[in-house]
Amino acid sequence: AYGVVLEMVPKGLAKEITERLSIHTVGIGAGPHTDAQVLVFHDVVGLYGEFKPRFVKRYLEGERLFLEALSQYVREVREGVFPSDEHSF
């Protein structure tokens, strides 16, 4: 094996595992003492609204931005603003 994923492992145990193994450890909700970190992109950018795993730090409120953009698109299509000549062949 080249590495192991430690998901939702208590941080003290993840640290001990990382120190004992000669292969890389990747943590997902396992604290700061693994060799690498991984999170699900959709969680990090907030695409699921109120759903947020405890170990995720959200860097963007993506659901709100996504819904605003989609609403603007629908509005522009209905008003005949989009597509314009610059968006046509």
Automatic annotation (TrEMBL):
GO molecular function, one term: 3-methyl-2-oxobutanoate hydroxymethyltransferase activity
Enzyme Commission number, as recorded: 2.1.2.11
One Pfam short name: Pantoate_transf
Domain of life per record: Bacteria
An individual GO BP term: methylation
Entry keyword set: Methyltransferase, Pantothenate biosynthesis, Transferase
GO CC aspect terms: cytoplasm
Keyword Transferase (UniProt): yes
Enzyme type, top EC level: transferase
Gene3D superfamilies: Phosphoenolpyruvate-binding domains (3.20.20.60)
Family designation: Belongs to the PanB family.
The protein's assembly and partners: Homodecamer; pentamer of dimers.
Protein name: 3-methyl-2-oxobutanoate hydroxymethyltransferase
Source species: Thermus tengchongensis
